[in-house]
Amino acid sequence: MTEPLSPPAEDTTPARPTAALDLDNLEREGGPKVAFDIVLKDRRYVLADPQEVDWQRLLISMDNPVEFFRLVLDKEDHGAFFGSELKMWKMNVLMRKYQEHYGLPSAGEAGGLPR
Q1: pTM beyond cutoff 0.90
Q2: Mind listing the pLDDT tens digit of every residue in the chain (115 residues)?
Q3: What is the number of other CB atoms lying within 10 angstroms of the CB of residue 68?
Q4: Pairing of strands 43-47, 36-40
Q5: Alpha-carbon 7 to chain mean position
Q6: Which of 34, 38, 76, 104 could hold 99 in an S-S bridge, CB 3.0 to 4.6 Å?
């Protein structure tokens, strides 16, 4: 004699909310840009793509270069980078080139969101 089939297990997985825009599953069109890297004191540093950084932290750091570099550099590079002397004119060039590379506004420009 065969035993009766047990009823299927109830699915207890919560349903995903629906919305006009699901940011959890959104993929970036075109993907990240080519990395922006620099050499300072014979060491190569790769600065993070600002589009891949938390928007709040990025906007706050735009007015504070030290915080900005803490945000866009790998943590293991902080000591060497911040321990290296860098002339202000070179820092200005670095910031300008980074902003141009990624299409960022300069600090203080209206509309602060990166493109």
Answers
A1: no
A2: 566 677 777 777 778 788 888 888 888 887 767 899 999 999 999 999 998 999 999 888 888 889 999 999 999 999 999 999 999 999 999 999 998 998 877 666 645 444 4
A3: 21
A4: antiparallel
A5: 48
A6: 104
How far the first Cα of the chain sits from its last, in Å, is 70
Q: Which residues of 25-51 are buried (b: 16+ CB within 10 A; e: fewer)?
A: eeeeeeeeeeebebeeeeeebebbbbb
Asked if residues 15 and 6 have their Cβ atoms less than 8 Å apart, the reply is no
Domain ranges of the chain: 34-102
DSSP conformation class of 12: -
